Structures
1.
Amino acid sequence: MNPKRVLIDGVAFENTQQLGVQRYYLEMLRRLPDDLNRTLFFDRPCKAVLPQGVEVVYRKELFPISRGDVLARGRRKARRVGEVQTARSCESALG
């Protein structure tokens, strides 16, 4: 039988300023049953001390760009598409 797995976002361990949140995560991880496979997921390298007995997984992207950049590109594309559709509707009305 495959062991149960739990995937936890490890953003609280990516810096050293979030001690209160890290304390909460450590307490939560300590109270999980022993038969669970605990995995922490990271976008960036962790800088805080990690709890023992957890597996660490890092994001693997084909394109190393930030999520904010992706959103900005999508907004620009949507704006351009809207401008083209508006121009086409004006041409058809005139023409």
2.
Amino acid sequence: MNITMYSPDKEGMGYWIAEIDEPTNIDPKDLYYIKLKQHIDIDEWCEETYGPSDYWGESAISGWKRMRNKYYFVNENDLLMFKLRWS
């Protein structure tokens, strides 16, 4: 799996971002890739490692969120741990 990382100073909008490969042949109704096995596995690992996902528009609590194929982190260490696990 390819992972592209962005810092808050670049395109991160205040977050450290890990962007994984965009899936192909997805269900057009699954806009957020909720049903994809790859994302389910990653989301479960993130919950076990960082705690529950934060909601959009709220202050960071556990420090991570996902939007489609991008994972957003509050700090760089969490991004680096993500990269080490999923590269």
